[in-house]
Amino acid sequence: MADPIILARGLSKRFGDFTAVDAIDLEVERGVIFAFLGANGSGKSTTIRMLIGLLTPSAGTIVLDGIDVGLHPRQVRERIGYMGQKVSLYAGLTLRQNVEFYAGLYGIEAGDLERRWGAVRERFDLAQAEHERPENLPAGVRQRAGLALSTLHAPRVLFLDEPTAGVDVESRGLFWELIQDASDEGVTVFVTTHFLEEADYCDRVAFIDAGRLIADSTPEGLRARYSSGYRIEASLAAGSRERVLAELGRAGFVAEAQGDQLVARIPALDSEGLRRLSLVLGPEAAASVRIEQASMNDVFRRLIREGAALAAPAAGAAT
Amino acid sequence: MSAPVAAPAPRIRLRGLRKRYGPRVALAGIDLEIEGAGIVGVVGPDGAGKTTLLRCLVGLLEVEADEASVLGVDLRGDVRALKARVGYVPQVFGLQRELSVAENLAFTARLHRLDAGVWRRRAAELLERTGLTAFSARPAGALSGGMKQKLAISNALLTEPEMLVLDEPTAGVDVVARGEIWELLEERSRTMLILISTSYVDEAEACERLVYLDAGRVVAFGPPAELRAGVPLELYRAWAENPRAAARATRALSFVSNARATGRFVRVEVARAGSPGVARVLEGLRSLPDDAVQIAEPAAIDMESTLLDLARRDPAGPEAAR
């Protein structure tokens, strides 16, 4: 990777004789949504807290946007936004008062604040909540307000620790749209979650299990490695059969005809594969396409089983 | 006197169940009748009243109701008889952290005055079944999240209750342990009624029946397939090279009510009432400018769309509770 915005090497954290994070390496490209997945207690929060300089690593280095986090934690803070598992809004203050408080912390001036908050309030749909106290807001709105506050100072990297925990399905979906919007504007998002299906909202996925990184890939890369991939069905016009099968074969699909149905398989359906598939099938067959893919829950179930097998003392030779 | 033949009396029968905490109304009149065995999911947005309902059902809260009986015990009266017959796994960690796995089970056994021979045999079976045998000397506080929950469930099952109530037992638990917990619950659910609250969409789908709560009311109750069938939406998947850009383009189509990029495709929801028909929706998606969408296909309404649709209904509305 040419110029990662987050670069961690050999990152470890021990609490007494318990190793929470065990020598992990992370590289996060600028502008991506990077999902950091794992169960409760796997080391996700410890890692995120080290990355933002809240917790000193037992070993390893972290460079964030070119700055050594261990050496210059204050400089790092201006560049990042953080939202923890418990949204840090002050109870007793209205949302508006919280905004002013945060603006003061980040040295945002009054005129600038009006402009920025105005835009954020609009996008995050917070106008109605502005004069409410956070303790009186539903969890989903509180999460949105927390995200709004963490983006107020226009950070380059957003760290979101379990932003969708305890939030219902509807709010979770809306929340991911906001995260994707932030990413489309160039903000790098480092986000932890234990909802595995949310990996599909992200560009890159790392999985931590018992303090060790057992996967670091794209969602499609994980699907290709830990599932039987994609199965595609479409109706096949009699005359086009040989041509379609041959062309799909050349594009990396394993394709066969079953009567007048086409059945094609491919480990991962990347942009190129998708484009070729739609071209080869043409508009008529494309109308009858059915695509099946493995769920992220199934992918991770297999990943954890195989990851555990790799971590156990191997009976045979390692590959 | 011999035990009565299992009569099909509902195990849970609630009419107008209300619960207030001071001025706040947590349950605003629950009508619910649950018969037989199986896994019944309790789902709904944060603050809907899920935890309160579960706590009422195990006799932990005083309630107001026109009718409220669980296993034939009136929740408005003396519920001590109920507590021995219902297993409960609360959302907060309910184990003794310093005690070992085995000691936690012994503690529960003593609390319920179980015969030593009986509980030891049951405990050994439960530990074996949950894979905790090798960890029986480990303090509960030092177990992984998944193992803690397996122990909490074993604890609740030790008395061989007639009904099991679990409040988000799998929150934050890894996907493999979640699967194992569900296997155990499915096994037990053949003979036992199990109520479970969850925020996982896949778990809601796996329940035999679902209670959808919102604002302290039952918005829907039934098997997942029935709830899915009642969703007034059509669902499509629009496969795209750049799903996020495609989602934006898709939202511009007049008949699209919602579009969200996920992985390689855009989930597109179209209100049935405003749909121009499957063929024209697919055509519309495929003809978006800049070839935004490569392949479009209709999809079956899934649990995610079902929960989203239920969340949009007015809990007090006429078509909500039946």
Can you walk me through this structure?
The complex is a heterodimer of chains A (about 325) and B (about 325). Chain A has a 6-stranded mixed beta sheet with strand order 6-7-8-3-9-10, with helices on both faces. A 4-stranded antiparallel beta sheet of chain A has the order 2-1-4-5, covered by helices on one side. A 4-stranded antiparallel beta sheet of chain A has the order 12-13-11-14, covered by helices on one side. Chain A starts with 5 loop residues before the first strand and ends in an 8-residue tail after the last helix. Chain A has 2 domains: about 5-225, P-loop containing nucleotide triphosphate hydrolases (Rossmann fold); about 230-290, Alpha-Beta Plaits, CATH 3.30.70. Chain A has 10 helices and 14 strands. With about 325 residues, chain A is α/β, with parallel strands linked by helices. Chain A is about 35% helix and about 25% strand. Chain A has helices at about 45-50, 75-80, 95-105, 110-125, 140-150, 170-185, 220-225, 240-250, 270-285, 295-310, and strands at about 5-15, 20-30, 35, 60-65, 65-70, 80-85, 155-160, 190-195, 205-210, 210-215, 230-235, 255-260, 260-265, 290. Chain B has about 325 residues and is an alpha/beta fold. Chain B has 2 domains: about 10-230, P-loop containing nucleotide triphosphate hydrolases (Rossmann fold), CATH 3.40.50.300; about 230-300, 2-Layer Sandwich (Alpha-Beta Plaits). Chain B is built from 11 helices and 14 strands. Chain B has a 6-stranded mixed beta sheet with strand order 6-7-8-3-9-10, with helices on both faces. In chain B, helix 3 packs antiparallel against helix 4. The longest helix of chain B has 15 residues, at about 115-130. The radius of gyration of chain B is 23 Å and the shape is globular. Chains A and B meet through helix 6, helix 9 and helix 10 of A and helix 6, strand 12, helix 10, strand 14 and helix 11 of B.
